[in-house]
Task: structure prediction
Amino acid sequence: MYLVNSRAIIERTFNGSIEIVVQTRNKPGELHRIELPGGRIDQYESLVTALIREVKEETGLDVVEIEGEDTRIDTVGMDPSFEVECIQPFGAYQTIKGPFDSVGVYFRCKVQGELLQSGDETKNPRWIPVDELRQLMHDDPLQFSSIDRAGVLFYLKYMEQN
Result:
């Protein structure tokens, strides 16, 4: 099985501190791990469309800004039988070992609206300060979803450098 994902790092500044949205995976038969919003893209769905859809389904939030969206180009109208989009994401990942092969991209974004109490196979979406995220990762990286461990570490490294 080969999966392609579009994932969100949703940021806001609250009381002078940067916070992001995390949630708990609530899928039957899977461990309840902390994760970032996002998921599998549908066949021929654009990365941006999938990101917006997944964030809404899982958190109830509406994406209003996506970092890198201004870099997006597509070939719509050139050849109706083959269309492609190209965009600069925040980061990309590829599984290199595990029960399934997966590739995906992370986008930093801003949202509006109110968080749901639970969403599509998720529960407890919440805002947490980046310092708390760093501490959670330090204390027990295995409490995060297998996919998002590297994405969270990548984001934390970026935040240290900027």
Remarks:
- The chain has one domain: 2-161.
- Residues 2-161 form a domain with the Nucleoside Triphosphate Pyrophosphohydrolase fold (CATH 3.90.79.10).
- The first strand starts at residue 2 and ends at 14.
- The helical segments are 47-59, 130-139, 146-161.
